[in-house]
Amino acid sequence: MEPVATLTAEHFEERLGHLESLLIERFERRLAETRVDLLKWSFLFWIGQVAAIGGMLAFALRSVGR
């Protein structure tokens, strides 16, 4: 009876290891996608900020020049 329990435990550990590797792979892929999205939105935010500051600076310089 003991060998059956040992085989069952080994089989369970193999399946658990496979499931764990799948979950880690899924997590890493999701993390990579999140990083890409975060980087994309960061660039869009900074481009908008540069445009806004440039517009305010242009307005201020035009107002001073009059």
Query: How many β-strand runs?
Result: 0
Number of DSSP helical runs: 1
Q: What is the terminal-to-terminal distance?
A: 97 Å
State Rg: 28 Å
Summarize the helix and strand pattern as letters.
H
Find the structural class using helix and strand composition: mainly alpha
Low-confidence stretches: none
Strand content: under 5%
What's the story with the biggest beta sheet?
Answer: none
Helix content: over 70%
The shape is rod-shaped
Summarize model confidence as the mean pLDDT. 90
Would you kindly provide a written description of the structure presented here, covering whatever features stand out?
This protein has one helix at residues 2-65. It is mainly α and 66 residues long. It is rod-shaped and about 95 Å long. It is 97% helix and 0% strand. The chain is built from 1 helix and no strands.
